[in-house]
Amino acid sequence: MHPSDVVRKYIRQGTMLSERYEVEGFIGSGAYGSIFSAIDTVTMERVAVKALPPPNQGVNATAVGRFHREMKVISSLRHSNVISLYDFGETSDKIVFMVLEYIDGPTLYDLVTENRFTIEQALSITRQIAEGLGAAHKLGVIHRDLKPQNIMLIAGRGGDHQVKVLDFGMAKLLQRLNDESIIQLTREGVAVGTPRYIAPEQARGKEVGPYSDLYALGLLMYEMFTGARAVKADSIESAIMAHVSREPLKLDELDEVPEAVRPLLWKLIEKSQKRRYQDADDVIHDIRKLEAHMAGRPAPPRIDAPVLAPLDEGRLRSIHSAEDLRLDYDRFGEYAPEKGSRVRWRSRERAAVPLLRLPETAAERFEAAVCVAFAPAAFTFVSAHFYESGYVLRLIMGSIPLVVAVVASVLARSPDWRWSVFRLWLVASVVAFFGSHLLLAQLARGLSIDAAWYLAPFDWIPGAETLHKVITALCKAHLSVLMD
What we know:
The chain is 42% helix and 11% strand. The protein is α+β, with helices and mostly antiparallel strands. Strands 1-2-3-4-6-5 form a six-stranded antiparallel β-sheet.
């Protein structure tokens, strides 16, 4: 039975909680509990009640720990853009609950799927989310699960909205709250978050910070302008790979984002955390400057902080459609991490990486060209040491640099591996080339007997004889230089 169904066996319409909150009805369910509307019989205000089932009835210790953590975090955050916690308690049936501010409005997810926001609305919502996050960050709280479903909007006048940031159950605490320690529920190296909105460093299980939440904020802003998700994927692995890959995100609908906003967007979703926004206050400052410029108030139109342009906007608009992905990490076993889960996570990450890291940039293609030109020399010099061996063995020994490169490339597979197989092959060939000169007398003997021995089976091919003579002449010239 789902935890939400368990809770609804104990809490129904008319149930009185803490002799004060009268339950009106069921609103919705989460991964481990239910949400109800209720009336505070003291103030006569409507409130929201979030409750978990009793222990050992559909929830584990980690879920209960997250629930208590969320209560502690929200109670410490007093900000107009963060949902407020009024009260908490436990029933005689061991149902743990918290009483929250009741928000009469849709989630950001509900709205972005229905219509586009104007530039003024999108910037206002983005700024308010940043303000709520900034308040949390100042207390050392990193949300880690920012997504449209965790942002609620209260409609105001003239199309304005007031933002409320919800669900701090996955928050990472970088310091004590109110001088009280809170048990960390996630081990180092275990990824936490929702695949579609997870920051690169977060996906790798590395250290997170305010910059991790700001990455997700950029993805939300993109959705507000385009109505489409920046990451379109049909599996958890492909969603994660979109973030951890060195390539910029493929923003198919980039043309729908106003040009004035794009520098802000690019800096929010920069893959390198060091080049991304580091502080929510910087985001707020830049948005306010942009808003002032649009309103005609005196303000410089450019953004102060240096913003890096995308590598190639043409590539970023490439077609990349897929089925809708609504996946949380509870399916990934994150809520109850088991021993060895990091190893399994790494294997999932590596599974989506190409078997061999091939050249991608102009510099890597140049390295590949140099390697193709230099590797035969290394092959010739290494194999010359085995002039008394058979043809096959000499082929194998001469191919050691290539074998080393391929094996190293396969073993080192990861999204952030920087070396192509050709770079590895080039380095191994250089080492083998100079290493072959350590036994100079043996090298000279092998080259003198037949430097181009490997061309013998192909002497019937036109030009093979000429190539054989050229290689032999070059090797003799090299030897003469060494011997002088």
